[in-house]
Write a structure and sequence with these properties.
The protein is mainly alpha-helical and 307 residues long. It has ten helices and three strands, in the order H-H-H-H-H-H-H-H-H-E-E-H-E. A three-stranded mixed β-sheet has the order 1-2-3, with helices on one face. Strand 1 and strand 2 form a beta hairpin. Helix 3 packs antiparallel against helix 4 and helix 3 runs antiparallel to helix 7. It is elongated and about 85 Å long.
Length: 307
C-alpha cells in the first residue's frame, strides 16, 4: 500500500465510509429479513444496527476529541474517543451479540422455511463487497502512517488510531457476518436442512462477540494509559540525541492521549560545563525539535539528570 494512495485518508473519511455502509446494511437487511423470514438476515440486521450505533458513538468521540485544549484540560480532549469507543463495544457485546445468539438458538430449536432465499443470496454477496471496501479504507489509513514496519496485522496491532481501528473491526465484523450468513444459507438451499438458518445466526453472534472483545481489550489499554508506539519513541530519541549538548537519554516515558497524539517525559544527561542560559536554550531546542518535527507529540517535559 503506497503512501500515494493513502495520504489523503483521514479519520473522518474512514469513519464516515463505515457509517454509510452500516446505514445501507441496516436498511436493506431489515427489508430482506422481512421478505425472507430468515433468522440469518435478522442477525445481519441486528449486526448492522450495532455497527451503526457504534460508528455514531465513535464519530461523536472523534468530534469531541478535537475540541481545543483549555485550562481544565491542558492536554486537550483526545482521550474522549476511548470512552465513546468503549461504551460502543460494551453495548454491542452485551446486547446485540447476546440477542443475536438467542434468536439464532430459538430458530435452530424451532426451524422454519425461508422465502425468497435468492434475495438473501444477492444482498449478502453485495454486503461482503461493500464491507470489504470500507474495511480497506481503514486498513489503508493505518498502513499509510510513516515509520511503521512489518505486515498489516502488526501495524494494526501497534496503531494508536483507535477511531480507525474501531471502524476496521466493525467492518471486519460486517464482512465476516455477511460471508458466514451467505455460506449458511447456501448450505440451507443445497441440503434443505432448515437448521442452517439458526446455526448461521449463532455463528454471526459468535464472530460479533469475539471481535468486539478484541476491540474492548485494545480500548482498555488506551484508557489506562498506553505508551506511544515504538517508532514514535525511537524518533523522539533520535531527535534529542542529534543535539550536540545531549550526551545520553537516561529515561523516556510516553503516553498516547487520543487521535494518535502523544505526551512525553524525558530525562537527559547533558554536558556538565553548560551554564544556566545554555541549559535553558538546550531545553527549548529539544522542545522545538521534537514537537515541530514529530507531529504526534503535542507536549514534552524535560528533566536534567546525572547517570
Amino acid at each position: 500500500m503506497s503512501p500515494k494512495n493513502t495520504k489523503k485518508i483521514s479519520a473522518e473519511k474512514a469513519v464516515l465510509t463505515s457509517l454509510f455502509v452500516d446505514i445501507l446494511d441496516l436498511v436493506v437487511n431489515a427489508i430482506v429479513a422481512v421478505l425472507t423470514g430468515s433468522m440469518v438476515m435478522v442477525a445481519e440486521a441486528l449486526q448492522g444496527a450495532a455497527d451503526l450505533f457504534s460508528v455514531i458513538l465513535v464519530y461523536i468521540g472523534l468530534r469531541k476529541s478535537k475540541k481545543p485544549l483549555d485550562i481544565e484540560h491542558p492536554f486537550g480532549y483526545g482521550r474522549s474517543i476511548y470512552i465513546w469507543t468503549f461504551v460502543a463495544g460494551i453495548v454491542t457485546l452485551m446486547i446485540t451479540a447476546v440477542l443475536t445468539f438467542y434468536l439464532g438458538l430459538m430458530r435452530f430449536l424451532n426451524p422454519e422455511p425461508i422465502k425468497n432465499i435468492y434475495l438473501a443470496y444477492i444482498f449478502l454477496t453485495v454486503f461482503v463487497f461493500t464491507n470489504s471496501y470500507s474495511l480497506s479504507v481503514g486498513l489503508r489509513r493505518i498502513a499509510s502512517k510513516k515509520g511503521r514496519t512489518g505486515g498489516i496485522f502488526r501495524r494494526f496491532k501497534k496503531s494508536p488510531l483507535i477511531e480507525t481501528k474501531t471502524t476496521v473491526v466493525l467492518d471486519l465484523i460486517g464482512c465476516s457476518a455477511a460471508f458466514i450468513g451467505l455460506v449458511s444459507l447456501i448450505l440451507y438451499g443445497v441440503t434443505g436442512n432448515f437448521s442452517f438458518d439458526g446455526l448461521g445466526a449463532m455463528a454471526v453472534a459468535v464472530v460479533l462477540g469475539i471481535l468486539t472483545l478484541y476491540l474492548l481489550n485494545s480500548t482498555k489499554d488506551l484508557l489506562i494509559g498506553k505508551k506511544a508506539p515504538d517508532y514514535i519513541e525511537d524518533s523522539i530519541k533520535e531527535k534529542i540525541l542529534s543535539l550536540k549538548n545531549v550526551k545520553q537519554i537516561l529515561d523516556l516515558k510516553t503516553m498516547t492521549v487520543g487521535l494518535g497524539n502523544v505526551i512525553a517525559n524525558v530525562e537527559i544527561h547533558a554536558n556538565q560545563n553548560l551554564k544556566t542560559m545554555q541549559i535553558e536554550k538546550l531545553m527549548d531546542e529539544i522542545k522545538d525539535k521534537v514537537v515541530k518535527e514529530i507531529k504526534e507529540v503535542i507536549h514534552i517535559q524535560i528533566e536534567l539528570e546525572t547517570p
